[in-house]
Amino acid sequence: MANPVLDVQNLTKSFGERVLFRNISFSIAEGQHVGLIAQNGTGKSTLLSMLMGIEGSDTGSIIYRNDTKTGFLCQTPDFDPEKSVLETCTAGQTEHEQHLNAKQILTQLKIRDLNQPMGQLSGGQQKRVALAAVLMTDPDFLILDEPTNHLDLEMIEWLEGFLSRGNKTILMVTHDRFFLDRVCSVILELDGGNLYTYRGNYSYYLEKRQERIDNQRAEIQRANNLYRRELEWMRRQPQARGHKARYREEAFYELEAIAKRRMEERQIRLKASTVYIGSKIFECQYISKSWEREGKEPLVIMKDFYYNFTRFEKMGIVGSNGAGKSTFIKMLLGLEKPDAGRFDIGETVRFGYFSQEGLKFRDDQKVIDVIREIADYIDLGQGRHLTASQFLLYFLFTPEQQYNYVYKLSGGEKRKLYLCTVLMKNPNFLVLDEPTNDLDIKTLQVLEEYLQDFPGCVIVVSHDRYFTDKIVDHLLVFHGNGEIQDFPGNYTQYREYQKLLPKESLSVSRSDSASLQTVSKQTGGRRDGGENRRRMSFKEKREFEQLEKDIEQLTKEKKDIESALSSGTASVEEITEMSKRFPIVNEELDMKELRWLELSELL
Question: Does the keyword ATP-binding apply (predicted)?
Fold first, then answer.
């Protein structure tokens, strides 16, 4: 590998008898964007801390290239509460660097009061300041632990572009699969104490990981078949074996170890049929809500908002932080009162609420006891039921973990346990406020499967675009200032719809969300022209024809770059060049498609 920035050899880490990983080795080359994937509690954050010298290793070596400047974003940053935002972000930088970077990056992350003391910020705002501080130091090598947590969709897409365009070396832990797919060109997976390397983006990783699992299953099946035959041979042999037989005996024990290896991949889907919900769900009857702000205009969340929620609907709620998404949910659940209007909720509705603040357990409880306090089993209907232990196993708590005390769980495992407590109550209407924060990708896949099969209603507030796309069939988009757009589709469809709208239509959508709701429902995103529109000029026809050729060429170039980045065969230099070219192609393609759409309406 050319120009390694980091070389890790034979690294081992354990806590008591529990081994997180043993003798793992990997290198990261200059300019590579690397994503690290693993289940919660298996050592992702520990490994990052070891790379930064915060945590020690049992064995092995961690070697950086000389003079490498490293920036580290940890999950729980620690600040001096008395220092201002600006002082925190610009510590150790020259005055020129401060003015060059601070306001631009902090504005993108929606931190606007640079003189506010850190102690007055929320946890999410502090994490965003920490991210800004790391980016502003302009390091050669960025190590980021969950950089998208506490960012809204707009910020995530900005960060995605910021990291993709640069040629910095990056190692990140994130559960945001769109982010992994678009930013990373190498995936490292920690699984069962071993490290696997996939030289491609997240989509490539999914494909190759499945190949690995299929090969392992085939190996275990072959070993099982051989093991049965060898076991018969072992039983037939006399106790005093010859020299040749001892070799076969040693091979038998190796075979036995392979045959007894368990594959953790789950084969079942959890489908409940006993959940009942009536035809009447809830009706928002002209809800208004605003918050008073000292020295400022009131923050308007909703203005005369009407919505009738239908049976089996799976709705996503998206929008900027502070636009009112969580407030809407709390009003629906009766935790906040609207200023005007009311919610009319059906008699059969039983809410299950997963909140951002709801994580409350006793550390001296065992995991299994937390669940059994709610119920011993879930009735799946048709004579089927799932015990508390089986339910935890479905959500990837091993039997050993189930009898651990809560204090031994990682932050992500505690969030997963909280999720299990919500689902174990067997509600028929799930309201999930940022359920994906701190959950590993395997758990997200289990949750997605559960929600896809869930026979009740679902509302999801999430900044995880991949998760939202897989679950919801409908969006409420909170634009701020009380403007809420009703869109019939998932997040990717919404973004594609936005691209089709000329800029003047987007500004109209912000000033008149009700009319845009009507457009979305009645035309599926098409814009109907008026009767007295003008025709295309000769010059515009030539431009239109050229645009079609340019769009075709740029689309091909975009696909070629994506294929090359996913192939795993490109050199570091080629990857760096393509990473720089890709956002330019993307932006040019968007502009030409927008102009093509404008001209097409004159045909």
Answer: yes
